Amino acid sequence: MNEKSTLTNPAVKLVHINLDFFVHFSNQYACISFSHSCDTPESALSLVQVSQARLELSGVLNSFYERIFSMFVLHEAQSILVITIIWILVRLFFARIHKPDTKRELMLLLVYICIIVVFHFTMAGSTVCLTDPELHRFTPKLNLKAFNFLTDRYDGWQRNIIGNFTMFIPVGFIWPLVFKKLNTYGKAVGACFLYTLVIEILQLLLYERTSDVDDLILNTAGAAIGAGIWFLIKKAGKDNR
After folding, report:
1. 57-67 pLDDT, tens per residue?
2. What pLDDT does 120 receive?
């Protein structure tokens, strides 16, 4: 969920870099051409036309970069629609193998809601970008220093801590409720740990996000609380029988 980075959109960076390159190239070309072929008004006019053409080409490429990067932005509404379609297809596939159970499907909807909520806070609106537009190489933002959240203070640090912790409390509660194989506290917490680990790994590919070991700790701690609540309720129910 970490959103400490305030970097601009990579498409914007590419636009500026591309424009600077073409302006510089045009100026260099103009200087060389001016010294060799500006003896007549016609040649001077031709030079102006070349410069204008290069600036127009720069504008076209800027638009191209913006279009390309807009295709790789995880727009929330579109992404949720894709997740929903995949969910429906998976459930229809299993419905052909096993007899549909309305109660089971309603319980699984809780898992679907958890997935959507977690996606909203961890990935929605981010740009999938495998290379830094300035350095032209893969530069993931990664923090492996554990418990940095205890001392690190930045704008929104309290919201980040509380959000990462509370977001996974429902996950820790719902998963062992729905998935019967998660029948022990350790299995439930372990499954939630793997879930948040996958999220942090995927965030390595998102330009505006930071993969943070502290997020992993806070998410798992929240899941541990949620799982603890579920197993306490389950145990209390058995004791009352």
Report:
1. 666 655 555 55
2. 93
Distance CA 104, CA 181 (A): 14
Q: What are phi and psi of 154, to 5 degrees?
A: -150, 175
Q: Is 115 exposed, middle or buried (0-12, 13-18, 19+ CB in 10 A)?
A: middle
Reported pTM: 0.69
Question: In 77-141, where do the E strands start and end?
Answer: none
Q: Tokens at residue 115, please?
A: 């997935």
Look at residue 2 and tell me if it is in a domain: no
The structural domain count of the chain equals 2
Please compute Rg for the chain using Cα positions.
26
- 85 and 40 within one domain: no
- The alpha helices in 72-135, defined as continuous H runs, are 76-97, 102-122
Q: Domain range for residue 92? A: 76-239
Mean pLDDT of 203-232: 93
Residue 36 has a CB neighbour count (10 Å cut-off) of 8
